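INTERNAL TRANSFER SHEET
From: sequence group
To: structure group
Subject: Glutathione S-transferase

Please process the attached sequence and return the structure record in the designated field. Keep the field labels unchanged so the import script can parse them.
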Amino acid sequence: MTVSGNCHKVKSILTLLNLPYEWIELDTRKGETKTEDFLRINPNGKIPVLQISDETYISESNAILYYLARDTKFFSNDLLEQTRILEWMFFEQYSHEPFIAVNRWLLKFVPGTANAGQIANNHSKGTKALEVMEANLQNKDFFVGNRLTIADIALYAYSHVAEDGGFSFENFPFVRKWMHNVKNYPKMISIESKDTL
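Return from structure group:
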């Protein structure tokens, strides 16, 4: 689904690596990932899914990022850098995306479906994630090794549209600078960012 930040990650790495691919759109809101055919591909019923052979599929956006980038400049040969990249990718899935992306979904795509307490709780935890990012981006252009890696791609997918979920970047100058660096990285600018969930 074009509006999915997790799909945005996959489209980003495919574009950056000049890999040929066929993109198949599915609408999760219409139940297209809950069909019997799709559940054979991914029993979790979620997108994105990368098909790498007739019978082999990879789900989970960050696992797909790793699979595609592991032997490229967007990962690392250094064990400590590899670990730092994975730290940020786990942070994105546990401390960032559940709050920033969910508030964006609730406020932009299904307004009125959540109570104010849920939105406020998500906002507090999402802001904490941005504070952690801000502290780690001081005097750095990117998160690991001062170059674009899949850690940046993972975090950028929902950060760059966080304002749709009620988040402000007024107090996060280093995060703003980092988002500018990612957006303006060669080829990233060609990816339709505002369609992202």
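Handover comment: The chain is about 50% helix and 5% strand. The first helix runs from residue 5 to 16.
Transfer complete.
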